[in-house]
Amino acid sequence: MKGKLLKVLALGIISSCLAFTMSACSIQSQPTSSSDEKVVNLFTWANYVPNSVVNEFQKQTGIKVNYNNFSTNEEMLAKLQASKGSEYDVVICSDYIIEVMGKQKNILMQPIDKSKVPNYKNVDPQFLNQPYDKGNRYSIPYTLGSQMIVYNSEKVNFPIKSYKDLWNPALKNSLVLVDDPRIVIGMTLKKLGYSMNETDPKKLAQAKQELLKLKPNVKVLDADTPHNSLINGDTTVGFMYGSQASAAVKSNPKFKIVYPEEGMNAEEDNFIIPSKAPHKENAGKFINFMLDGKISNEATTANEYINTNKAAKKYMSKKYLNNKAVFIPDSELKRAERFRDVGNATKTYDLIWSEFKQK
């Protein structure tokens, strides 16, 4: 997932060097800053916007895309803080980090002029007006990610329907989990009937004990490629992102996708424009282009994230629509819970995770 699985780690800012990845037709050593240039500086995860889409935008508009990538939301925020919001034109980042940024004294995002983005009308209303940015003043949804259970039906002799089934002693040394504290602790909290964003110390203490009970069943923790252990037969059940579950199913149709009965998590990735974007007009044109139904479908078909664009549906192939890992029914999405900034409780989550991994 392009390093994205690390995105809900503690919200301490990572001061690290940024590696640059450019699209085939967008080779540039540094972001360009002259306001009258036909350039847009994009900052997101590597390969999250397909080259074919980048190339089509450049062809249609004559605006060159300088594609720069980060590994985590925290790295992105550190870069924006270092440049005071002046280096990039469009950033694609996650919902919870937008919430964090919106609480800061010096907000590094600028309000998006919707009149410059007429394709905003294409965004499915169910993904708008979320708590992290009420009214979508600063952000516009691009895609949505979610985690789910996937298991080998030939090797597991009972049906898996929920998070609680992962605690079954019959699955000893059989699980692969995405290596991420908020995701795995969140799953445990949902099993107990609590919110994934729980901050009550007593409920978190209960979740800690419950998670430790799961440890005998866990064979692999993998942030980036958890599906590989399923594919090679090292594990038989996994909890991972949809695009990873999709890779497992493509390798072996015996793998089954499960939407947990307790409810899923949903994480929206959004377009934002930094506060001092050097090419603000071009930023609006790029976002508007990405919200075109045909382009949106092309992007999510390639990156296998959940599409948030209602105009894209008429372009979706049967293969995409039948892929349970990337086309999740609205009934599931509407009851899914979003991660939120848990403030000081982040330290507790980190301590729980540390003990779980060390046990």
UniProtKB/TrEMBL annotation:
<dbReference type="Pfam" id="PF13416">
    <property type="entry name" value="SBP_bac_8"/>
</dbReference>
<feature type="signal peptide">
    <location>
        <begin position="1"/>
        <end position="19"/>
    </location>
</feature>
<keyword id="KW-0574">Periplasm</keyword>
<protein>
    <submittedName>
        <fullName>Spermidine/putrescine ABC transporter substrate-binding protein</fullName>
    </submittedName>
</protein>
<dbReference type="InterPro" id="IPR006059">
    <property type="entry name" value="SBP"/>
</dbReference>
<keyword id="KW-0813">Transport</keyword>
<keyword id="KW-0732">Signal</keyword>
<dbReference type="InterPro" id="IPR001188">
    <property type="entry name" value="Sperm_putr-bd"/>
</dbReference>
